[in-house]
Amino acid sequence: xxxxLPGLVRHESLVNRSRFLAIAGPASxxxxxxxxxxxxxxxxxxHNCWAYRIGQQYRFNDDGEPGGxxxxxxxxxIEGQGFDQVAVLVVRWFGGIKLGAGGLxxxxxxxxxxxxxxxxxxxxxxxxxxxxxxxxxxxxxLRNLLPEFxxxxxxxxxxxxxxxxxxxxxxxxxxxxxERLTDxxxxxxxxHDPSAPDRPDHA
Length: 203
What we know:
CATH architecture of the largest domain: 2-Layer Sandwich
Number of strands: 11
Structural class: alpha+beta
Strand order of the largest sheet: 2-3-6-4-5
Radius of gyration: 24 Å
CATH topology of the largest domain: Ribosomal Protein S5, domain 2
Strand content: 25-35%
CATH class of the largest domain: Alpha Beta
Number of helices: 5
Helix content: 25-40%
């Protein structure tokens, strides 16, 4: 399981008189990653290099540094530290001494990795959706079950044939909650896919 960050974190390092500042934060989608990078990029810096990874989506940018010496090492640091849904910006102020390609890779990647290594972690939980229909008489009992499975009601509709609920919960608890609801209702609960069109339960 991957981790994300609970909030913004920073780490600064000095390499041959060049100053590096890593700023990392959580990003749930590419737009929020780019917004974080834009907000914290510094106009007085020599380079604002960055990377993000959000699931299978990732991007990186060398911002004028030689290709492959900044953005890619930052991305490698995110992956190497086991993070997901994270954006990292590393700002550099040139100190007058050239670092060479290898030195840049170590400086950018190292600053990003140390920033993430020292940061607090927030485990990413895969959520699932469970939609069901129950008799009105079971509503209180069902709602009393939800905290045990860390489930939240995200949709509800009182219809003639019963209460229709949409539940959001950690995927690891999905099967167990289905079993409990089936037992609670003596098999009368009906589960359905919210993306499928409504249809009767019988042919």
